[in-house]
Amino acid sequence: MRKLLLISLIAVSFVQAQELNPQMSGYVNELKEQAKRENQNFQEFDYARGESVFTKEQVGKRGVLISCATCHTNDLSKNGLNEQTNKVIEPLSPNANPSRFTKVKKVEKWLRRNFKDVYDREGSAREKGDVITYVINKK
Amino acid sequence: MKKLIIASLLVAGNLVAGSSYGQRGVAPVRDDFYKAECASCHFAYQPGLLPAKSWTKLMGDLSNHFGVDASLDSADNQKLLKYLLGNSAEKFTEYKRSRRINDSIAAYETPIAVTKTRYFIQKHREIAPRLIERKEVRSLVNCTACHTTADKGSYGERAIKIPNYGRWDND
Predict the structure, then answer these.
(1) Which helix (H) or strand (E) holds A80?
(2) Residue B47 lies in a domain
């Protein structure tokens, strides 16, 4: 019985650690390696730093104040809106929208585009990892 | 009898013309990759809404796509460009809208926005800005807000319904 309990506990913790699929975990690990190379003091990706990357407003590519939350909103389980085209943006949180953060190519494409739109530059490996950590873990 | 022959000839003539000029709107979008990539941010504009030179110019600078970065890797970019060029306005002149848009673009200009073509401007000139600025519409780029069958490539007057206004009648 005790063995069964132990196995169940291990299984549960395993499931929780497996929020990202193997391809996505591999991508996040690559970002981690790159972040270490760029800064020796780097330890781990950080939710709070990611939240700041996501919510901080600055002058973006269009020359007006913008943050990630401008289109995605601060509630990542709800729809966002592209105000220029009036196109609904489906929820960013994988809790609400399981297809999010499942395809590396798609994640790379949108991080590249959206950092340009919001920060008018590419994101660093640390910023990308931080913001992914924030988005996939935000309740 | 002579009248009947003339009438028959007219009908036959119309049928012949119909085979080359009969389509009313633009050819609908049939490419799922195009829909997935382009329509994640905006309406899936039919390739027949612009000529090849416009699509080539637009796809050549996706990093600056109407103020936003819409860049793609070059393989995906080429794949989409091939679809756009294979279905651009001048290749679908049997469709009325494709023909009219294409005819309204001068040889010296290369508009990358459908909304900047002379035909489009002329067709929308009577729409009051207050009807466009509402949150249900926001911009003329949002075709489906008023053209209820735009996704089928049909932009006819009977299917127009402007939010906060109703049906549109040119007469």
Answers:
(1) strand A80-82
(2) yes
pLDDT (tens digit per residue) in B94-145 = 999 999 999 999 999 999 999 999 999 999 999 999 999 999 999 999 999 9
pLDDT at position B5 is 61
Distances (CA, A) of A139 to A76, A103, A107, A134, A135: 8, 21, 20, 10, 9
User: Chain A closest CA to B68's CA: distance in Å?
Assistant: 6
Q: Is the residue at B101 inside a domain?
A: yes
CB-based contacts of B150, cutoff 8 Å, min separation 6: B43, B143, B144
> Whole-angstrom Cα distance, residue B11 to residue A114?
57
What value of ipTM does the predicted structure carry? 0.85
Map out the domains of chain A with their CATH numbers. 20-137 (1.10.760.10)
Distances (CA, A) of B99 to B18, B148, B169: 14, 21, 23
Report yes or no on B144 lying in a domain. yes
How many contacts, defined by CB atoms under 8 Å, are there between A and B?
A: 48
CA separation for the pair B139, B147 (Å, rounded): 13
Residue keyed to tokens 């960013």? A92
Does any domain span residue B78? yes
Q: Quick check: B67 contacting A, CB < 8 Å? A: yes
With a cut of 90, say whether residue B27 has pLDDT above it. yes
Q: Closest residue of A to B142, CA-based?
A: A85
Instruction: Report B:138-157 residues touching A (Cβ under 8 A).
Output: 138-139, 141-142, 145
Is A85 within 8 Å of B42 when comparing Cβ atoms? yes
What's the pTM?
A: 0.85
At A76-133, the pLDDT tens digits run: 999 999 989 999 999 999 999 999 999 999 999 999 999 999 999 999 999 999 999 9
Structurally, chain B folds into a number of domains equal to 1
A118 within 8 A of A58, measured Cβ to Cβ: yes
Can you give the residue range of the structural domain that contains B40? 24-167
